[in-house]
Design a protein that fits this description.
The protein has 197 residues and is of the alpha/beta class. Helix content is 56%, strand content 15%. The protein is built from 9 helices and 7 strands, in the order βαβααββααββαααβα. Strands 2-5-1-6-7 form a 5-stranded parallel sheet, sandwiched between helices. Strands 3-4 form a two-stranded antiparallel sheet. α2 packs across α5.
Length: 197
């Protein structure tokens, strides 16, 4: 079974693209959602996060994401510490999930797939792109984020130019109908690659 990485800058529309793959009956694992679930359900993770960020990082079993985000986005050292807790747990969770799938390929969706070297564990990788002004509008609508907050988050990710050098497929996500067609085309290319491997 092939693992196909799916990534894109913040606001590029990775989740929308993942949804199109789901409609084609392809199982999709969303690393960010898994990370959130593990932060809530794993006592070990909770204890490790509290030891770094203090008691304010949790309210009972609920991680205080805004508080944690405010700490890590301006401090690369803290972001790295958080990633060292979450990423191995997500990796383990993905392996267990993968064992339960029965299909030609699965999609592994992660925001920093290239930045953290996760793409090397995938058989193929898809990059979702969109013009900067569209991405900013989407984020302002979705998160009510300020221009500064958006810029800070974008600065933590590689540029599309850098990521595109490592991608096997690039989806330009501006027009939904066109994006759907691009996904269908890539789906058939992956199935073809699966038969030939």
């Amino acid at each position: 079974m092939m693992v196909v990485g799916l990534t894109g800058g913040i606001g590029s529309g990775k989740t929308t693209v993942a949804g199109f793959f789901k409609k084609l009956d392809i199982p999709v694992y969303i690393a960010d959602e898994a990370g959130k679930r593990l932060m809530e359900n794993s006592l070990k993770i909770r204890e490790e996060i509290i030891s770094i960020f203090g008691e304010s990082s949790y309210s009972g079993n609920t991680p205080q994401r805004k508080f944690i985000a405010s700490k890590v986005f301006s401090d690369e050292r803290l972001l790295d510490k958080l990633n060292r807790i979450i990423h191995p747990a997500v990796e383990e969770d993905f392996k267990l999930w993968l064992q339960r799938q029965h299909t030609t390929y699965v999609i592994y969706e992660a925001a920093i797939l290239f930045e953290k070297g996760g793409y090397k564990k995938c058989d193929l990788n898809i990059l979702v792109t969109a013009p900067l002004e569209i991405r900013i509008k989407r984020l302002q609508k979705r998160d009510k984020s300020s221009q500064d907050e958006i810029q800070q988050r974008m600065d933590n990710q590689w540029s599309d130019e850098k990521k595109s050098q490592l991608a096997d497929f690039i989806i330009n996500n501006e027009d939904l109908a066109d994006t759907k067609l691009q996904v269908e085309h890539i789906h058939f290319e992956i199935l073809k690659a699966g038969k030939n491997s």
